[in-house]
Amino acid sequence: QVQVVESGGGLVQPGGSLRLSCSLSGDTLNYWTIGWFRQAPGKEREAVHCSTRDSKLADYEDYADDSVKGRFTISRDNAKNTVDLQMNSLNPEDTAVYYCAARRPSMCTTQQDLYRYWGQGTQVTVSA
Question: Cα–Cα–Cα angle for 123, 2, 76, nearest 5°?
């Protein structure tokens, strides 16, 4: 049974950084596309970033939502079965529960029902 678990959330001051990690178990990360999503209080869950499993590319193709471009980067370590989300220059609008999710197809998508496995989420709070 495949499972994904997020870790690394916490409280950070505006302008600070956090690194979230998504750990996949029950299979090899090579076969999975991993998406990061977030849900802020009172808002719908939204896509943040993604890393595809397409090993034909020299580097894993990824995408970032416009709201986080230039601040958030994604990295994949297939040996450790993890996909990390490095978040820099955080602001209060980044406060949310962050989720990672896994899907077998190689293409990233913002359509959440196309992700098969979801983690429980990790809280990120940006506040002075």
Answer: 65
